[in-house]
Amino acid sequence: MSIKADNDNYLNRVYNEIKDVIGASFDIAIEYFDLQDGRALLVYVDGLVDRDLMNRDVIGPLKSPAFKGDLKLTTRCAHSLANSQQEFITEILEGNLGIFYDRQYFLFDLRKWEKRAIQSPDAENVTRGPKEGFTEDIITCTVLLRRKLKSVDFIIENMKIGKQTNTTVAVGYIKGIADPHIIDNVKYKLGCIDVDGIVESGKLEQYLESNSLASVSGIGVTQKPDIAVKRLLEGRIIILCDGTPHVLTIPELFLDNFKTAEDYYHRVFFGSFMRVMRILGFVISVSLPGVAVAVTNYNREMLPVSYIETIIKSVSNTPFPRAVEMLFLMIMMELLKESGTRLPKTIGSAVSIVGALIVGDAAVRAGIVSSPSVMIVALTAVSGFVIPNLNEFTTIYRLSFLALGATLGIVGIGVAIVFMIAQLASIDSFGVPILSFYRTSELKDSIIRFPLKKLTLRPQNIARGNIRSASSSGLDK
What we know:
- By secondary structure, the protein is an alpha+beta fold.
- The chain folds into three domains: about 5-110, no CATH class; about 120-250, no CATH class; about 265-430, no CATH class.
- It is built from 16 helices and twelve strands.
- Strand 11 (about 430) and strand 12 (about 430-435) form a beta hairpin.
- Helix 5 (about 140-150) crosses helix 8 and helix 10 (about 270-300) runs parallel beside helix 15.
- It is elongated and about 100 Å long.
- The N and C termini lie far apart (about 85 Å).
């Protein structure tokens, strides 16, 4: 048998093997094409490969008379070799162009697909600072980070997770600042994830958290590159997942939920004021309905006489206890919020606003609830919007405060506070307690923010090996 015939038989066998594995899908092209000295096999996913580049830089040069059998010297774009047919198929499914020639598996990175443009994230609007946000394309996300963090110590390592999806997950950190033990722990936990697929970083968060029943996970989430870079500079680790704009940050302290990148762009007094207002909004959102029920039911002597008269008049025609009124209004608030989120933007906001006005006014007029209850729940809802990252936490504990306040009064509120603090104190994020108290030098960036010239240290519980910041070294004298 001639060498040419033997090569053709081997090519046909490879064609059949690849056809059996992925040939059932209509969008996967598996084609022969003739060359000057034989045939080659072309394999790609239609829609993931740039056809213009493929014809111009690969197919055209290979079919030209100048081709002398050396594919490496003829093609006009970079390529690599797959070590096995399985690796060859995997890379093709990720969007690479594959060519089998001369018993070698060649791969060309000619990926091109439609992706969302860089936009400002709806959940993290700012009045000052960068407007750009992460997208679903992981390469675009890494580019946004590299533009802001031009350091040789910024490391991004990637891995594949999911037996069926083979999702690309990247771990980013700054070498020399991030804690090596936390880095190793994060990579170990990611490597232990054994599932069919990962399509969103929210699933990664649930696999990484230490306690699935805890009220908070100890893992932060952001869609803004400037916030991710700020966290990296503090010694934290970020996790990017292909297919989602939500980037995870590890570890996340509880106080970090009240900080935004915008705090550092404004002057010190306004930035500190807004941080205090977020903390105040958190306290109101969690405790106000429970405290209102506890005081009006058990400790009315704490209220002014004029306000007690107003309450008595308002509840005289309502059939339900105060706690039931609050629960009804809170449920309606959550339903309106959910409907406004799921509906299209053009009508979602209108439904939320009009629905709240109509339902609240109709409920008061019908005598189902009292007007003070509507006002309290409305203030609670507005306060909760100040800290959207803690929406799950505030919703759960708001109900807990209401239940204990309705049954035990002010004592129940005290029990709820102790229970909440005790649970938060029991949660750690990769070995770092989320209620970690900052040392004296780090209190300059806690509840209030000192001038940037004074912020010379990183959080010692996070960046344990390199706590001194390189910035402002000569400005604070």
